[in-house]
Amino acid sequence: MYPRRALRVGLKNALYVILKTKKSDVEYECALDESGYRVNIDLPLNIPEIGENFISVPLNQRVIAQITPHIIKTSDGVKNFAVSKRDCYFESERSLKFFRRYSQANCLLECKTNYTLRECGCVGINMPKEAGTRLCLVEKQVCMETAETLFSLYNEDAEVWGDVDDDNTNVNCNCKPTCSDISYGTELSYNSLILQILNNTLREEMDFENVNYSILMLYFDKSYVETKERNELYGFTDFVSNFGGLLGLFTGFSILSCIEIIYFCSLRLWRNVYQ
């Protein structure tokens, strides 16, 4: 599981996207900071949660996003530990109802879908569902927003709410991250879109009187990816060797000393008692 290798890196090799919005399509009654686009950078197996994790691309602005992939791997030795200790799932350890592959984001979305269905009797249009499940219409908007707020509150503070005897708090999804994961960090810069930053060809093709333009530039900062790996700090063999080494260093302890201790605590004691 690795991201596709970038052949070119740096701002000069950025993906250059021009987004067009007709001024007649803009709802000016909405808040000014909500006008524009939302872009999500994530793994293809995850359904994007545009309302939570996104890059905002406002109208008439240029956004430059520097992308840094982060890879976390886990050694097979960690698999011997309980899930509660290593705090992650291997891919074969957890399955989901609506998704073929497990990820923390998909697990949370599935859990939120089940909670919304339980509280409102319907699910959002962006949620996975079974055949015959009702979609929430406008009259259920308040219920959906309340359910989403309570879900985030209860799930984030599951340890606190777990002691409360309330059916509504039973939303601990136990959605731990995967033991091997890829995430994308971004560093953003914004500036106003002015004619001077566009070349002559683009300026001639653009209709600034009737259209709002936004520019998004995406690029990788490095041609390689740094990987982190989870490993057990001390295994049983390491513990025994370190323990024996310390005893040997400070007390002259050895296997022969261990046999002598067993002898004096068992055979020698038994012999003295019966003689």
The global form is elongated
* Helix-strand makeup class: alpha/beta
Largest pleated sheet: 5 strands, mixed
* Helix content bin: 25-40%
Instruction: Give me the Rg, rounded.
Output: 29 Å
Subcellular location: Membrane
InterPro entries: ENaC
GO molecular function: ligand-gated sodium channel activity
Family: Belongs to the amiloride-sensitive sodium channel (TC 1.A.6) family.
Task: Explain what this protein looks like in three dimensions.
The protein is an alpha/beta fold and 275 residues long. 30% of the residues lie in helices and 20% in strands. The longest helix is centred in the middle third of the chain and has 17 residues. The radius of gyration is 29 Å and the shape is elongated. One of its GO terms (molecular function) is ligand-gated sodium channel activity. InterPro entries: ENaC (IPR001873). Keywords: Ion channel, Ion transport, Membrane, Sodium, Sodium channel, Sodium transport, Transmembrane, Transmembrane helix, Transport.
